[in-house]
Amino acid sequence: MGELKKKAYGKINLGLDVLGKREDGYHIVKMMMQTVDVYDTLTFLKTEGSDITMTTNHEGLPVDENNLCIRAAKLLKDEFHFEGGVSIHLEKRIPIAAGMAGGSADAACVLKAVNELFELGLKKNELMERGLTLGADIPYCIMGGTALSEGIGEKLTRVSPMPTVNVLIAKPPVDVSTGKVYSALDSLESYEHPDIDGLMEAIEAEDVPVIAEKMGNVLADVTMPMVPEVKTLVDFMESHGAIRAMMTGSGPTVFGIFEDENQMEECRNGLEKLDSCENLYGTRTIV
């Protein structure tokens, strides 16, 4: 097998809490992660020689070792010294700098594909261990589905799957610095913590209205003043049929949960006319 094509799925945070900060600067988090059916497509081709090369349809992305995809492939190449190289082509669809772990999802996809292409025999947990050396979100992106993420994101627990719901995802035409968002949170004396345990119980009970009620993102209160478009999108979705809308990650992407697909499509049509919306996807949660 010399060629392989795989999908790299994005994620949303159904819940995101920050519990503290370690001495090394990493924040201690408690998050409920969920895969969504928005994905990049990566094509892998075995090549002669030992080079690892990359192309992409997105002009703004680096294709050298500044890209996690190259670093992920090189990580396995340096460890296993397999014969031959690999050419990677990335068709980017997940918004960049959007709180959806797009870069981590791509790197996770590379680890899985190189393992398969070169028959390295690594199990999922072994790939996750290696992925953690590249980024805290990569182990989750290898796991996928519905999971509780703790520590700095590396402690993962598979939980009951999220009921399949309609999800509308919208990104404003701005980017957010994750570092600035966390610094703004650190400057607060106190903040309200979302009920992650209650959210997990609601997911287990498959109670979508209670899931929506329990969802929360502690970072939203500091991102919204920086990016007013986030609140604009949240308000628009909730006034057009979403049972709940919320920012994912450190932003600025917003997602809304809809029980009715027709309402989701009507909301999507309305958002297409707004200047505060750039990338827009009507999709579903997946496991």
What does this structure look like?
By secondary structure, the protein is an alpha+beta fold. It contains 10 helices and 11 strands. Strands 1, 2, 3, 4, 5, 6 and 8 form a 7-stranded mixed beta sheet that branches. Strands 9-10-7-11 form a 4-stranded antiparallel beta sheet, with helices on one face. The protein is globular. The mean pLDDT is 95.
Give a quick summary of the entry.
This protein is of the alpha+beta class and 287 residues long. 34% of the residues lie in helices and 30% in strands.
Characteristics:
287 residues; alpha+beta; 4-stranded antiparallel beta sheet; 30% strand
Layout: helices, strands, pairs:
Elements: E1 3-21, E2 27-47, E3 52-56, H1 68-80, E4 85-91, H2 102-117, H3 124-132, H4 138-143, E5 146-151, E6 155-158, E7 166-171, H5 178-186, H6 196-204, H7 208-214, E8 216-217, H8 220-226, H9 228-238, E9 244-247, E10 254-258, H10 261-271, E11 279-284
Parallel strand pairs: 1-8, 3-4
Antiparallel strand pairs: 1-2, 2-4, 2-5, 5-6, 7-10, 7-11, 9-10
Helix pairs in contact: 1-2, 2-3, 6-7, 8-9
Query: How many β-strand stretches?
Result: 11
In DSSP terms, counting alpha (H) and pi (I) runs of 4 or more, how many helices? Answer: 10
Largest sheet, in brief, is:
7 strands, mixed
Uncertain segments: none
- Assembly state of the chains shown: single chain
The N- to C-terminal Cα distance equals 27 Å
Helix and strand element order: EEEHEHHHEEEHHHEHHEEHE
Tertiary shape = globular
Q: Helix proportion of residues, in percent?
A: 25-40%
